[in-house]
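Sharing a chain and its predicted structure for anyone who wants a worked example. Both blocks are below, sequence first, tokens second.
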Amino acid sequence: VSITTIVVEDGELSTVCYRPEGLDQLLQQTKFTRRELQILYRGFKNECPSGVVDEETFKLIYSQFFPQGDSSTYAHFLFEAFDTHKNGMVSFEDFVTGLSIILRGSVTEKLNWAFNLYDLNKDGFITKEEMTDIMSSIYDMMGTCTYPCMQNDAPKEHVDNFFQKMDKNKDGVVTIEEFLESCQKDENIMQSMHLFDNVI
């Protein structure tokens, strides 16, 4: 049975049909059950009746989870990680594929996804500048009430520690190989990976 939704656009009724073959494909591509996919789809369509979400809407939805801080920059980075087709839109398929990795993926899949998130210009390397931008956006999002005594240089310290552990050949950038190897060998990093489960 296909899920059919009536959408009002510019005063005209149009039918958006989510075909079962799409659902079957997502069942194979993700680690969600048919029921979970239907529930996720209903929620997605409720927030985004057109079936896709643009960056501004994504930021607006995301900000509701972090009212104590400014989540706009982190939401921008997250949107770019979900927008796999780089067309300025996140479809339901994009969304559940990413969500499946974040929530149900193997350690390697989660780490690959995190690397892609941190690699802001998608050139296959994480630079100190990129990691600083990410860490600053996370501190901004958490807000001063979460970290009342947080020093301004906290993101920089976090980045310095990250590079000390990750940048094995000390060339100033972290590759996916360095990232995977360092994370999988370091218990603290593996535990800290789970801290991001709540952020995403």
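Comments welcome. DSSP finds eleven helices and six strands in the chain.
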